[in-house]
Specification:
The protein contains nine helices and 14 strands. By secondary structure, the chain is of the alpha/beta class. The protein has a six-stranded mixed beta sheet with strand order 7-11-12-3-13-14, sandwiched between helices.
Amino acid sequence: MLEKLTVRNFTAFTHLALEFLPGANVFIGANATGKTHVLKLLYAALSSQAVTERHEGEAFARKLQNVFLPRERHLGRLVHRVKGGETCEGVIKRRGRDMAFSFSNRAVNELEFRSRWPSEIGPAVYIPVKEMLANAPGFRSLYQTREIHFEEIYADIIDKAYLPLLKGAPTQDRSLLLDMVQEAMEGRVVVKGEQFYLKNRQGELEFTLLAEGHRKLALLWLLIANGTLLEGSTLFWDEPEANLNPALIRTLVAILLQLQRQGVQLFVATHSYVVLKEFELQHTMDHALRYIVLERDSATKEITHRVADAYLETLPHGVAQAYEDIYDREVQRTLEGVL
C-alpha cells in the first residue's frame, strides 16, 4: 500500500506532501493542477519496482521517461521550471519504507535513487483517459519495434488486458465483481487472436463496433477476470467518467468501492460532479475514502492542496462551482421567463 508522497520541484509542483488511505483516494482539481502527474509518478514507481530487484534506479528512470515522454526523453524536463529549481527530489512511502529519488534539470536518464521497499509488490494498473482495446491488434508489436509517440501506459494496459483468464472457478468476491460489470455492459468479453469481442445473447460484437463507454467496462472485466485486480494491487484511473453515460456512473463507483473493499488501493482523478456525488452517496463506514483537492493559488500561482475524508469538506472547488453556476443560470432564466 502506498502511504505518502513528498516531492519538491516536480513538474507543476514546487512542493507537495500527500498522505493516502489504503482504500480510495479521489483527486479533484482544474486542468493543469497536476492530478495526472501524481498518478503517473506513483504508477511509475510501483511498476518499475515490480519488474526487477536489480538496477532499480535505472528501471525507475526509464519508466519515468516512458510514462511522461519528456522531449528527447530527458528526465530534466520534469524538473519544475522556476528560478533556483535545479533539482527535483521525492520520497514515496510504501508499507512503512521509503523510496527516495532526485535528479537535476540537466539529467537525461540519470537519477539518485534509494529504496527500502519490500520486494513483493502487487500489480499496478493505470487506466488512461483514451480507450485502447479497440486499437489493440498489432499495437504491441508496433510499439516494441518502432519509435511511436505513445506513453507507455497504453502499451502496459494492453499487455494486462491480453493476460489469460485465471484457471478454475472465480472466488465469491471476484464473481460478485464480474457479475456487476457484466450486468452494466450486458455481456462478457472474449478474445480471439488479438481481437476483443463483447459476447451476449445476440452474438459477438467486435470492440470497433462497441460503444467506447462499454469498452472501458470491458477492460475492467478483463482485469478482474485475469486476476490483475486482486487484493494487494493498485488501480490508477484517470477520468473514469470519460465516454461513459452518466447513468452507468452509479454502477462504476459501486464497482470501484467493492474493489477497495476487497483490498485494491485506488487512485482516481475526476472532473465529474456525478462521480464525486456517487462516491459521497455510496460512502459507508466500511469504505476508506479520501478526497484530495489540488488548486492553483491566485497570488503565487503555485499548486496547493486540501485533504478531506468527507465530500462536503472539499467545498468549494471548481467542479461543484461549475454545476452551481449552471443551476443559478437556469433559475435566473426561469424567473425571467415568468416575469
